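Dear support,

Our group has been running a series of protein-ligand predictions, and this particular one with flavin mononucleotide is the one our PI (initials K.S.) wants archived with full inputs and outputs. We had some confusion internally about which version of the output was final, so please treat the block below as the authoritative record. The input we submitted was:
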Amino acid sequence: MMTNETLQIIKQRRSIRHYKNEQIREEVLQAVLEAGMHAPNAGDQAWHFTVVQNRELLERLNLAAKEAARQSGIQHLSELGSNEEFNCLYGAPTLIIVSGDQNTFVPLEADCAASTQNMLIAAESMGLGTCWIYFVQMAFSSSQGADLRRELKIPEDYKPYYSAVFGYKNEEAVDIPDRKPGCVTYIR
Ligand SMILES: Cc1cc2nc3c(=O)[nH]c(=O)nc-3n(C[C@H](O)[C@H](O)[C@H](O)COP(=O)(O)O)c2cc1C
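Confirmed final output from the archive:
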C-alpha cells in the first residue's frame, strides 16, 4: 500500500478524550487556524473561527450544553447531561468553533466541515490531540444560548456549525477499529 507522511498522519489521527492541562503553543494554534482557512470552500471563505481558551467560559459552555442535553428527550444525551463526571470538552484547554455566514447562496455547512477536518489533521501533525465535538453545540439551544453567542462574539448572521477541542494528549488512542470493508464501488 502506498504511504507517505500525510497519509500516515491521516490514519494515525484518533479522537482524544483526555488532555493535559497545559495550553497549546500560540504558534501551533496559528498554524492550526491557517490550515482551517485553507480548506476547500464554496462560500468564498465565508467562515469565522472562535478560539475559546478561557477556562471559565469553557466550563459554562459545558454546563449549558449538558442542560440542553438533559432537555433533549434523547435518552443517550440526557444521560450524559445528568452525569456529573461528564465534561463534553474532556478538559481540553482550547475549543475552536467554526461558524458560517447564513447569507451566502451556497450551504456553508460543507465549508465549515472541511475546515474543521483540516484543523484536526494539521493538529495531529504537530503532536496535538483533538476531538470533533457535536455535544457542545447544544449550548446554543440552552437557556443561555443567546448570551453565550454574544459573549463569544459570533458575528451576526453566522451560524456556529462545528466545534473541536485541541490540547496535548493525556492518553494514547488504543481502540482503532479496522475500516469497514465493502464501501467502495468501482466503475471502470
Ligand atoms: C460531526 C461529528 C460530531 C462529533 N461529536 C462528538 C462529540 O460530541 N463527542 C465526542 O466525544 N466525539 C464526537 N465526535 C467524534 C466521533 O465520535 C469519532 O470521530 C468517531 O467515533 C471515530 O473515531 P476516531 O475519530 O477516533 O476515528 C464527532 C465526530 C463528528 C464527525
